[in-house]
Amino acid sequence: MSIAQSHPEAADGRHSAGSVVTRAAVLARPGGVSLEYSRITRPWADQEMIELEPPGDPLCFVVTFPELVSESSLWCDGRHLVRQPCPPGSFSLYDFSHKWIAQVPNPLDSFHLWLPKNAFKELEQAHRISIVDNIHLDQTRDCRDEVMMHLAASLMPSLSAPHEVNRLFADHVFEAMRLHIALTYGGLPPHPPPRRGALTPLQERRVKERILDDLANDPSLAELASLCGLSVSHFARAFKQGTGAPPHRWLIRKRVERAQKLLVSSEGPISEIAQTCGFADQSHLTRVFTKAMGVSPGAWRRERRR
Q1: Could you give the CA distance from residue 179 to residue 253 in angstroms, rounded to a whole number?
Q2: What is d(CA 219, CA 255) in angstroms, rounded to the nearest whole number?
Q3: Per-residue b/e over 229-250, b at no fewer than 16 CB within 10 Å?
Q4: What CA–CA distance (Å, rounded) separates 253 from 242?
Q5: pTM for the model
Q6: Architecture per CATH, 12-185
Q7: Could you read off the pLDDT of 58-101 as tens digits, one per residue?
């Protein structure tokens, strides 16, 4: 069975053996770098061989097993690797310049991150080292990585509702994953203490105007950083320093505020207001609005019209 050929992107699929696959491709970055991730579940035992094939060029493949203890056999370029059982939270990293085949007889529940090698290009150029060549993880031993497990968990909800994914949030998680892998497994030296300054008034105004002028669409962190002439990581820190919130949270707050104004000033249906403010649909607006305000949009509108 080939994972890469068994399901479409951004859709739920079912392998020939019955394993359920959910994949989302939600983040496209400059230079053709994109983040794809999936969850593969199979609630029963199966002896089928799984050939791990990346979508596109060779990638680093990251797997966490969040729930089930899993025993597996692994082959790299035809060489059998004796692998220890993987307890919940285990982390594996694969270099797809090699061919990988796995046999997982136990029930399976795994999170897969497909990370292009050129995702590390910016860091490699800045630090003048080859991160990809340095990445190494012993596949025969258990590795538990709490950071990757929690980052993966933060993306899980988007697999059930990919149309509701906040691009700035996915971008933020991608940056955290990329930096953590480079530091922990790729030999990237620890960063010097980051500059603490916020954006200049002009930079902050440009970014806020870009977001507010088009609330219905998600900008990328790279796009906003380019408005300020900063790297993505420096921009994210500086924006939070000045506004008290990372860009994706600030965007959500402004969408809710815009929805509040339209709920009072217009007679339009809530579904229409949701689209205008950048929410996927009325139910998406209702969930976010209720979490922020403590009441649903409909109840909030009725209260203000009494």
Answers
A1: 27
A2: 14
A3: ebbbbbbbbbbbebbeebbbbb
A4: 15
A5: 0.69
A6: Sandwich (2.60)
A7: 566 666 554 555 567 788 888 888 766 666 677 888 777 788 88
